[in-house]
Amino acid sequence: MNDAYWDQKIDNFYKYSFDESDPPATIAMMQTLASERPVGDASALFELGGVHDSLGMEDEAIHYYRAALEAGLEGERATRVFIQLASTLRNVGASAEAVSILESAPSSNVDESARQAFLALALYDEGRYGDALRIALLALIPTLDGYKRALREYAEELPSKQTIRKSINLA
């Protein structure tokens, strides 16, 4: 099957068929779509993770996201799996792992601002408030018309967790 055709079927599923009020039927529809791909297909695993995630079934989503990564997910979905896995991990209380994943994920032109936003949230959950604010500000700065230099300087001056530890140890 042509990848673009299958991708269009996935888009149509979310546009016309996704039904939050009927998780079993919604999952069955996605499983049918996934079965159109070879067994163990990374994109199909990613989409199965996404539907479980969208339905609030985080543990199942995490399993599928990890399987998609192990299967060698590529392209745009490869960028998104890091974001979605980390966001889901954060939701289940594993924000330290979420930070690790998002910090080690390769930068990409696809959803880079979203990656930074989720990283800021995970850093905040980890009590790294200065780091979280810095990441959020640095992601915002390119969208501004003015004050870029000043905000970049202020962002860089924010304390990191490591700086806070050093200052506590010196006291």
Features:
single chain; 171 residues; mainly alpha; 0% strand
Topology:
Blueprint: H1 3-17, H2 23-34, H3 42-54, H4 58-70, H5 76-91, H6 95-104, H7 112-125, H8 129-140, H9 148-157, H10 161-170
Would you give an account of this structure?
The chain has 171 residues and is mostly helical. Helices cover 73% and strands 0% of the residues. It is built from ten helices and no strands. Helix 1 runs antiparallel to helix 2, helix 3 packs antiparallel against helix 4 and helix 3 packs parallel to helix 5. It is elongated and about 50 Å long. The C terminus is likely disordered.
**How do the helices and strands follow one another from N- to C-terminus?**
HHHHHHHHHH
Number of helices: 10
Q: What is the 3D form?
A: elongated
Beta-strand content: under 5%
Distance between the termini: 65 Å
* Fraction in helix: over 70%
Structural class: mainly alpha
Mean model confidence by pLDDT: 92
| Low-pLDDT runs | 163-171
Radius of gyration: 19 Å
For the report, how would you describe the main beta sheet? none
Count all strands and give the number. 0
